[in-house]
Prior knowledge:
DNA-binding, TetR family transcriptional regulator, Tetracycline Repressor, domain 2, 0% strand, 9 helices
Amino acid sequence: MTETPKFRRQAPDARKKDLVEATIRCLEKKGSDGLSVRSISSEAGISVGLINHHYPSKDDLIADAYEKLATDILQNVVDIVAETDGSPREKMSAFFKAYFSSIVLDQKFLRIWIVFWHMSDKSEQVRLSHDKTNAGFRHQIELMLRDLVKSSETPEFNYRLAAIGLSGMLDGLWLEWCLNPDVFSPEEGLKLCEGWVDGLMAGAFKL
Length: 207
């Protein structure tokens, strides 16, 4: 027998945070089947009417969930890099190590991202969250690449294109590993990215 959710009063920001986190949990558990407002309201322990009060549409809620998950994951990686002492090259290595750890490399995220990617093609709100968070990821990579050039004899290159290339490589490796972890190990993924950056620093890519 399904229990009736126990509602509690909360400030609007706290309520929206709960709704976003409940949405992420629903997508993690059920994939696209977790997209219903009823599923999310049950997970959050509030009424469907309260969701409609805080979000004018389900797409707005999904967009906020997309942005929160992507931002939180990136921030966890950035925090590890910030805590790393050493040269810009060593910080880049710390970035890769964090990326190929369970912070990012977790199959439970795949079900969530598949829903997000599908909706980004159909929803303006979700697409904007996708564009914003992807731009933030590329920007972080570009900042690290600029620091590499400043601290070494690395030849100048097109930072924007290099960031696009490296972020695309990271995304592709993440997706491939989530689909089949037997294809390569996290250590091998790390080695591929380290080699890519070493090649860039040696002038192997004319960007």
